[in-house]
Amino acid sequence: MKIITISLLFLPFTTFALQALDESELSNVTGEGLGATFENVVLYSEDLGSPNDFELNLFLDDQGFGGNYLRFSELRLNKSGAEPGQADSGGQFGTYLDPFFLGLLVDVNESYSSLHDHDGDAATAFINTPRSHTALYTGFPAANEVQKERSFFYYSRSDLGGLDDEAQYRGNPDGFFSSANNVNVGNFFTLANNFDNYLAEQEAVLDQATDKFDLHLRIDSINDSNRNQDANDQFLASIDLEGFRLYGTETYIWSHSRKGQEDARINRAGEIIMADYGLAIATSVGLRADKLTINADPQGLATSALSAEGVDVYLPLGTIDQPMTISTVQFQQQYRGEWLTDGNGNRVASSLAPASTQLRLEIAPLPQQAVQSERGHIYIQQLSFGNTVDADGNRIVDDEVVTGYEDIYLRNSNGEIVETVDDVQHVAFVPKTVTYNEQVKIYNEANPTTPIPYIPNENTLEIKGLEIQRLVITTQDLDLTR
Amino acid sequence: MKKIIITTVAMLGSITSWADLKPMAEEELQAQTGQTGITISAKMEFGEDTRISYSNTDASYADAQQTWLVIDKMTGSIEMKGLKIDLESGLGPQGDKSALVMTLPEEILVDHLATEGVYVGLSENVDSVSNSGQHVFLMGMDIDGVLSMPAETKINIFPAEKPVINGLN
Fold first, then answer.
1. Complex confidence, ipTM
2. Structural domain of residue B44, as residue ranges?
3. pTM value?
């Protein structure tokens, strides 16, 4: 066994970043780091079971291949729409003006003032200013892009600012879908055009920063019930991301120095809130994808697929004001399978194991002075449960998800009906606007000289204002019995 | 003073060289005549019982005991044939960027590159008798097979100025 002991040579930027700098050191931080661009990015591995396959096994216990583990394989990444694994299927990731940043030191400030020992010298008076930290910054291309409002309902309301509620649209004009007559569309199509332009602004920025990529991954789950069976019996799911790219994705990491801000905060159980300690992380991930598919069939049968189309997810996890921290605790966990409590429902000492070192991830409550934390939003335009499309572009689905058949009245920009399509199939989790636009596409292809306008697509799923108020994750031994 | 001790046989040469990356002046570049970079074929093999132990004492911790993250019993190998490294200038939209250009090999061969376990505990050595039972298993990993990169994938690394930071407050 050869052991080389090295101090501070490995990942030099990281080691600098993980200690709190005093005021004079901060002034020496230059703000220069490394940028990276990636050209012709293609990753490919053959099917699981092939001689040259590639697999990553993640062991969930200390039994290795004899225990429970997950197997990831068939990793394929290439430019969207290209054939996987080919020399000409590579995509661009990052530019010299908007690269992938790494190894960059920045100083970040909390948004609120607090009384603290700013220079770490307990001998001098505390000052009441925002605390600052020196953080290691990592940013993906288009890290400064923020999520767009993808609900036409909310967009059109804000765009009409100044009018009273009754004058504002809440979707499409009255009777747009249901009336067999012409309808008054007002400035609906002007708003729709503005909405398109508003969304296209970000697409143009992302087009400059990075290509769209496709990603394929297979996941197997191996345990005692299927250990000796073939790979298809161990199959859990395959994941396909089509036309995806990241925006607003960045990470700050720093050592949390409380700087004597206040006495340790205590939770209701009388324990110290650990989120004021340890390594602190503020990160956010923004993902745009044309389609996300999870398939439960090892052969990839379309009827076994759950798909989400038009995906836009933006999720912050920890912020400068309210970081996610990683620290350790001496933690007494309860023996597995024992639920001994006293008359008040509290755990009794006899049910608790001796304390052991455990890892703790924690997000503290947002300080009152910080007012509002970063929020996340999720938009999914439509969901499909095994839907397929035939050669003529018609959707083929199980009867269970067909919600009915209705005529569609295709309208020009004045709201006048130009054609009626009889008995169009409508499907659950596919917005009416999507079904309408599918018919517009067919009409425009048949009438290229007199096209009619598309309408803004609504979303099947919108989750707005996601915010973590408090988070505590403590590792535990799942096999701890006596 | 920091108390970080890394026990490893990993690629120290390449990592430390990144730290010295600076743009080259025109004259310096011209002095490089005749050099077209280097091509590296390398296999990195972990000896039995190789481990990485990490501890950071600079942050404030409520738990007074020094804790270690240990990647224990690393084994296996990773091999690449034909990694090209070069310095190029005249890059970027203004032609004013110089970069370290790495052209990745067509294949990376991984032969059961594994760790028996990633642990958190009170010493840098999971087998330490004095700390027996004090390490918590987090996860283990084994990577094996051939990963292809058939498109001559290039990574360009260059000094970059501080971007406009969102702040994430």
1. 0.80
2. 12-157
3. 0.82
